[in-house]
UniProtKB/TrEMBL annotation:
Keywords: Membrane, Transmembrane, Transmembrane helix. The keyword Membrane applies. This is Uncharacterized protein. The chain crosses the membrane at residues 20-42, 48-68, 80-102, 129-151, 158-182, 194-213.
Length: 224
């Protein structure tokens, strides 16, 4: 089946660029205001970049939730197949994750580009770059999965999923006596293990999103 991917990808790339630009300018404004406040109070500004990184992670997650349904609705209205719309959504997520990672590098006091320029920490920085990109892309796919899953489910199914998620969160927090600390220590001992876990999660969320989309009853924006 031939996919007419270029027109829809170009359209959403332009829309995505507007969102990235707005996010980047907002974060720069936040960083400038925070720096100014801390400077006036005579405090350190060493932790300013941490909040910006967290904001980018949240942005990737939220924009996936919003964009997943709107992109599918618009694509089907113009006769574009679900597969083409889904591939476009994944490409947009890849592009978004790359740009957000670069935004984080620019706002993080230029440390990312400085380390690359010196070549002293090239291996470490490359690993960190892959890690940050995969976290962004994994959060994007997780947001897509949740959006399409709840679009697919009826009210009863949505309640079952929400309760199941609460149970899983409680399990992860050790409420039921499950100790995940040894596994966490084993995981963080090697960056390659974390990267492999992010790849597996990304693949699972991507596959789950596609299976949910295939059987979703897509309505118009008003009716859906």
């Amino acid at each position: 089946m031939k996919m007419h991917l270029k027109p829809i990808f170009l359209y959403y790339s332009k829309e995505l660029a507007k969102g990235i630009l707005a996010c980047f300018l907002t974060l720069l404004l936040m960083a400038a205001l925070t720096t100014a406040i801390l400077y006036v109070n005579g405090e350190t500004i060493s932790r300013t970049s941490v909040s910006l990184t967290g904001s980018l992670f949240i942005f990737a997650f939220v924009i996936a939730i919003v964009a997943a349904r709107s992109q599918m609705r618009l694509a089907l209205q113009f006769g574009i197949s679900r597969l083409t719309a889904f591939v476009n959504h994944l490409l947009c997520g890849f592009l978004l994750s790359a740009f957000l990672f670069l935004c984080n590098g620019l706002t993080d006091k230029g440390q990312f580009f400085f380390k690359y320029a010196t070549q002293k920490f090239a291996g470490l920085v490359f690993t960190d770059a892959v890690f940050q990109f995969l976290v962004l892309f994994c959060l994007y796919l997780f947001g897509t999965f949740l959006s399409l899953l709840f679009w697919r489910l009826n009210r009863t199914g949505a309640i079952v999923v929400i309760v199941s998620m609460i149970v899983l969160i409680n399990l992860a927090s050790g409420l039921f006596g499950v100790n995940l600390i040894p596994f966490a220590k084993w995981l963080v001992a090697s960056p390659s293990r974390i990267i492999l876990l992010l790849l597996l999660l990304s693949g699972a969320f991507g596959a789950g999103s596609w299976f949910a989309l295939r059987r979703a009853n897509i309505h118009g924006a008003v009716a859906g």
